[in-house]
Write a structure and sequence with these properties.
The chain has about 350 residues and is an alpha/beta fold. The protein is built from 10 helices and 8 strands. It folds into 2 domains: about 60 residues; about 220 residues, 2-enoyl-CoA Hydratase, Chain A, domain 1 (Alpha-Beta Complex). Strands 1, 2, 3, 4, 5, 6, 7 and 8 form an 8-stranded mixed beta sheet that branches.
Length: about 350
């Protein structure tokens, strides 16, 4: 055994360090050799990198938002250019206003949109006449009455001919509008007429009795709930509703007689709510001639070029409506999520 080695295996010379001691000393030297404030410098670099990243993300989001904004602006501009009545039309032409689909407030064919289109058509100096292009099963008598009255006013004001041209159907409220025209042209297979008024609904009282369901409806006013489908209808209420329908029917009949005049060949079925083919309608005096829109423009109005004045809902308007509906639905859902008051 070496004289310099002890029984525990350590070197007797205390000035010679062990391997573990050398490693600890090396780490200490490295830390000691680092420049002062390195921890702060590292934190500043990390903070600056985070700020730069946030700025880039914000710019990206702003860029996307700006792109969507430009997209919607372009849609609105395109819609304003393409939708609605034409402008600066000076050459001779036949103005066209469509009566299509259901006639109702808020629908594509409403008094608001149709009257606006008719005014633009009559006021245009290049329009030699106006054609009502009709393909509608009917709708609201109120909306039809407003359009009918406006047609009579515009005819007197501008002294221009207006002709109704029927495609597939011209029934009920659509015919209410058509009789304001000077003439009515139809196809031999068109459906014309249905001069009547209806009020529809359902009654579930018998079914509820079978199911053992009790309707608990509280009203202030004897007849406040007489149209409630879960409550029985009394004879008095039925008579009241029928009287109201009869009055509106008489208003409809008066408008038809005023519009058709001596051309109308009245029969017991004329105002019964029945409808007829275009050829039958001519025989009954409900229509005048067979012909389509091109024939009327060329031979009746004497201006072959057709210009559409109908207000057509453009892409921008549809998007706005959907966006508004989505906001409304979100608001309703938010309200529903609130705690109920008991």
């Amino acid at each position: 055994m070496n004289d310099y080695t002890r029984m525990d295996g350590t070197n007797s010379d205390e000035n010679i360090p062990s391997p573990r001691t050398e490693s600890a000393l090396s780490a200490t030297k490295n830390v000691a050799s680092s420049p002062p404030g390195w921890e702060r410098e590292t934190l500043e670099k990390l903070a600056m990198a985070a700020i730069i990243e946030q700025r880039q993300a914000r710019r990206w989001r702003n860029g996307i938002r700006m792109a969507w904004l430009l997209f919607f602006v372009a849609l609105v501009w395109f819609g304003m250019e393409r939708g609605g009545a034409p402008t600066d039309v000076s050459s001779p032409h036949t103005a066209v206003v469509e009566i299509k689909g259901e006639i109702a407030s808020g629908a594509e064919t409403s008094a608001d949109t149709t009257v606006s289109a008719l005014r633009s058509a009559f006021e245009d100096k290049g329009a030699q006449g106006v054609v009502l292009l009709i393909n509608s099963p009917g709708g609201s008598p109120v909306q039809a009455g407003i359009i009918n009255d406006e047609i009579h006013r515009l005819k007197k004001l501008h002294n221009k001919p207006i002709v109704a041209v029927v495609e597939e159907s011209c029934a009920s409220a659509a015919y209410y509008i058509a009789v304001a025209a000077d003439q009515i042209y139809v196809d031999k297979a068109s459906i014309v007429g249905s001069i009547g008024v209806l009020m529809d609904g359902f009654g579930f009282t018998g079914l509820m009795d079978k199911l053992g369901v009790e309707r608990r409806l509280m009203t202030a006013g004897e007849n406040k709930g007489f149209m409630d489908p879960f409550s029985p209808q009394t004879d008095k209420q039925r008579a009241f509703a029928q009287a109201m329908l009869d009055q509106i029917h008489q208003q409809f009949i008066a408008v038809v007689k005023q519009g058709r005049g001596t051309r109308l060949k009245e029969t017991p079925e004329t105002f019964s709510g029945l409808f007829w083919t275009g050829q039958q309608a001519i025989d009954l005096g409900l229509a005048d001639h067979l012909g389509n829109i091109d024939y009327v423009a060329r031979e009746v109005i004497k201006a072959e070029e057709l210009v559409d004045y109908t207000h057509h809902e453009n892409v921008a308007e549809r998007l706005v409506k959907r966006f508004g509906a989505a906001i409304g639905q979100g608001a309703v859902q938010a309200l529903r999520s609130l705690p109920a008051v008991h």
